[in-house]
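Run log // design_07
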């Protein structure tokens, strides 16, 4: 095979630049770039604003061609355009107006395509061998009609070269396509659409089309493509996406170019042995219907005698690696401070803080078992009998209650039928008398919707009550979201509970019921449905008394249901060391919500900061510091309660490679401890590099703390709406981590050290 880097490469440093050269850099440094808005020079021209692959703002005068419907991209329109006075040609793919307004699937495809294109351009844009890939120019995902711009295609599709390619050209095409697959695999990207129509040849170089069907390696395969170009596993949607899926397509193309025929696409062609030029491909197992039996892209390059562009020494330096080492050092520090840690959920021995009812012996936290390598101890005795399992509708008579601590005032509450009430439409508490009710089904239904007054209300305090299931089921779990005003706590909680309502916890073996049906319906109507309909939620108002926003009754198979309540207080209430926040001393788990606009020193965020009026804060989130200074500490001076640090609004930095690595993939269908550890390590490194140390205070101060990339809305609001709808990403990750740490998630056992991770 020959070196695919041809001396006529337009990116070659010795080549003379031309303003109309489609391979010339197009961005703020381009001579035709409009630094200030200007009236178009001709009525046929308009102005086009977009972000370059480095997320720099660009504005050009543009003239568009006619729209067409590109094949294989339903919901999209394509048109040619020329930028600037020099007439630099580009191709624009944009969502059709109907899809832009109401097509989340099409928008998601465009978002994935842009993420893959930007990742490839950022990593390989300065390399000569990047010519085997279509080059992205810019994009705008927040426009009324979101779009992406590419350099125009060079050459003609392979379908037009039938019978005109000699053996050397066929070898060059195969080698260059193998190189393209290798480059994508280096970033964990699988193209999935390598066909004769999507590969262009100009006589010297093969170019692969835009990655409009790309997925990340390790994701679940989605059925896509047709025989013989797509491998059998991809067509059927079986298993996990693998870079070797693309190598099947390369092999099918190589056979087609040499034989002039197409095969059935279910294994090696019957006459494969007749072609000596394909011997290396045949003996390597490249035509195997199973990806695991095919060679890796770098192995195929060796077989084809093509230089590996990512050979040892050519890999990009990972600037985050020193910060990952710092994460490891911090873990070691915390392990040394805590020594033999108490089981998660055991009573904290802090003077002046009410002791909770003792929980049964449990395994160490997920954090301890995965990251610290501690084997789970075996319980020495069976746990004490608890209330009957099952949903509230099956509980006819509340059993004698153990002392249950009120999450508001932190005082013990025992079941007392005389304190049962219902709440009418006006918010009045109406006493509930069931002494004369003899029908078990009616009694159970009344108890399901009942509240229990807290007996500890004193004169001058606001009266409060607890949903009855909170008192008569398993050990409660209270979760507080912490962060300053406008960091997105309310949106994150609404997105979490929306995913729960859609069954997002069921793959993990958890069933969820409302803690109180009427209160839950009100929360869904006022918060979750509003967010799902693309409306921005109002800011959480300050309170004189901390009430939880919503509650669930969560159960695993065969286990006693446990009440889970969520607190969402205004940032002003959390940042002030007031009586409103006294409940924090009894909270079981925390989600610290971090805002990248306040934390990250990234130039790409400056335009958004200007629009929102927010500024960088090197001193961290004042709500973080206030809460961490208030809640109890354990031996070693660390916070005992499990915690998760959620980098919310991660969509604002989605094209940073480490963010894209996680935000660009869905959560796995089961808890993967190795992936949880890797994401925490990456998120810590990203924050340590781009933010001041104060923003990592929750991780530094909490004995158990995982870190996550999440996006509650997936985009910026315009006015009071999200123009392309709310698109939550990975919002259940912090909740699953807390559930695992608190012993609520079944089967949270360590996996292999690298299982499920594309590193």
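design_07 sequence
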């Amino acid at each position: 095979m020959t070196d695919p880097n041809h001396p006529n490469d337009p990116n070659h440093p010795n080549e003379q630049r031309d303003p109309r050269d489609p391979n010339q850099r197009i961005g703020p440094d381009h001579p035709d770039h409009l630094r200030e808005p200007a009236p178009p020079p001709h009525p046929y021209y308009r102005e086009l604003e977009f972000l370059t692959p480095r997320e720099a703002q660009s504005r050009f005068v543009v003239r568009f061609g006619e729209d067409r419907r590109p094949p294989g991209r339903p919901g999209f329109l394509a048109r040619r355009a020329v930028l600037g006075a020099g007439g630099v040609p580009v191709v624009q793919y944009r969502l059709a107006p109907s899809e832009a307004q109401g097509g989340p699937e099409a928008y998601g495809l465009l978002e994935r395509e842009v993420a893959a294109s930007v990742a490839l351009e950022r990593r390989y844009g300065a390399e000569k061998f990047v010519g085997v890939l279509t080059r992205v120019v810019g994009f705008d995902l927040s426009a009324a009609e979101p779009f992406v711009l590419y350099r125009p295609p060079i050459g003609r599709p392979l379908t037009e070269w039938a019978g005109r390619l000699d053996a050397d050209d066929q070898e060059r095409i195969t080698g260059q396509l193998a190189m393209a697959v290798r480059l994508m695999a280096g970033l964990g990207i699988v193209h999935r659409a390598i066909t004769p129509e999507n590969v262009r040849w100009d006589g010297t170089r093969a170019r692969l089309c835009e990655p409009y069907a790309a997925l990340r390696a390790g994701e679940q395969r989605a059925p896509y493509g047709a025989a013989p170009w797509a491998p059998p596993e991809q067509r059927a949607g079986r298993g996990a996406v693998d870079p070797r899926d693309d190598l099947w397509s390369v092999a099918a193309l190589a056979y087609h170019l040499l034989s002039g025929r197409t095969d059935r696409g279910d294994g090696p062609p019957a006459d494969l042995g007749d072609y000596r030029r394909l011997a290396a491909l045949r003996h390597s197992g490249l035509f195997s219907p199973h990806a695991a039996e095919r060679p890796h892209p770098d192995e195929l390059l060796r077989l084809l005698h093509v230089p590996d562009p990512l050979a040892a020494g050519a890999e990009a330096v990972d600037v985050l690696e020193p910060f990952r080492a710092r994460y490891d050092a911090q873990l070691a520090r915390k392990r040394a401070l805590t020594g033999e840690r108490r089981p998660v959920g055991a009573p904290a021995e802090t003077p002046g803080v009410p002791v909770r009812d003792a929980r049964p012996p449990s395994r160490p936290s997920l954090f301890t078992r995965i990251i610290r390598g501690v084997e789970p101890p075996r319980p020495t005795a069976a746990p004490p009998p608890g209330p009957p399992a099952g949903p509230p509708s099956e509980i006819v008579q509340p059993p004698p209650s153990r002392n249950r601590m009120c999450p508001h005032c932190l005082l013990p509450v025992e079941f007392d039928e005389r304190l049962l009430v219902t709440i009418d439409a006006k918010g009045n508490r109406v006493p509930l008398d069931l002494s004369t009710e003899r029908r078990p089904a009616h009694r159970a239904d009344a108890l399901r919707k009942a509240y229990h007054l807290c007996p500890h209300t004193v004169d001058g305090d606001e009266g409060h009550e607890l949903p009855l299931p909170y008192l008569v089921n398993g050990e409660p779990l209270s979760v507080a979201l912490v962060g300053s005003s406008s960091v997105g706590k309310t949106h994150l909680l609404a997105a979490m509970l929306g995913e729960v309502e859609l069954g997002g916890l069921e793959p993990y073996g958890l069933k969820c019921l409302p803690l109180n049906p009427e209160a839950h319906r009100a929360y869904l109507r006022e918060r979750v449905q509003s967010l799902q309909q693309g409306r921005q939620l109002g800011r959480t108002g300050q309170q004189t008394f901390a009430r939880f926003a919503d509650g669930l009754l969560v159960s695993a198979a065969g286990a006693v249901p446990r009440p889970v309540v969520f607190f969402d207080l205004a940032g002003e209430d959390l940042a002030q060391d007031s009586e409103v926040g006294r409940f924090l001393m009894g909270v079981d788990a925390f989600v610290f919500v971090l805002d990248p606009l306040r934390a990250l020193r990234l130039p790409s965020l400056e335009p958004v900061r200007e629009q929102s009026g927010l500024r960088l804060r090197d001193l961290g989130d004042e709500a973080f510091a206030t809460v961490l200074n208030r809640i109890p500490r354990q031996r070693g001076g660390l916070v005992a309660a499990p915690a998760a640090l959620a980098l919310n609004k991660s969509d604002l930095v989605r094209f940073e490679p480490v963010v894209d690595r996680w935000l660009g993939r869905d959560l796995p269908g089961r808890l993967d401890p190795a992936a949880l550890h890797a994401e925490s390590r990456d998120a810590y490194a990203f924050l340590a590099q781009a933010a001041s140390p104060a923003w990592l205070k929750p991780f530094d101060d909490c004995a158990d703390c995982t870190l996550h990339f999440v996006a509650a809305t997936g985009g910026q609001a315009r006015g009071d709406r999200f123009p392309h709808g709310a698109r939550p990403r990975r919002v259940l990750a912090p909740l699953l981590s807390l559930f695992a740490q608190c012993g609520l998630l079944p089967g949270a056992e360590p996996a292999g050290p690298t299982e499920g991770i594309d590193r």
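The longest strand covers residues 57-64.
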